[in-house]
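thought: fold this chain, then report.
action: predict
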Amino acid sequence: MKLEIFVAALVLLALPAAAQTDGFGRALACTGTGPVTCTADGITITNTTLDTVVGAFSALAPTGYTPPARPLVEIAPLDFMARLTPAEQTAIATAGQSNAQVLLFLLKLAGATTVNVTDALTQAGVQAMVAANLLTQARGAQILDLSRASP
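observation:
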């Protein structure tokens, strides 16, 4: 049973707010992007993070097991802005005065505690900057790809 719980916890790592099954065919589900609620085999863990779930089950890991690396998808808003060059930041701020979509993204960014680059709102904001010719499509993709340095 401990190994089954451990496997279920590992599968939870890969859940970006969607239902899946673990290695035993049981339904697993996590919802949320900040605090998450995870349900596995009738057990629900609420108002937590995936890191907390992993920490809770780490003692059950088989000796020598190394969990797979998780891609970085969340950063602080200031770190997100730092991925833009100073010239891009200035152009975006200026465009926000006349482009409602760019302004809306900047307002959401200012109120955020984290920026999830896989979130539809973040991607739409970057696309708004591409549509306004403030960024190229390739540059927008680079900004959203946290595995690559930027600028």
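thought: worth noting. Residues 2-60 form one domain.
final: tokens above.
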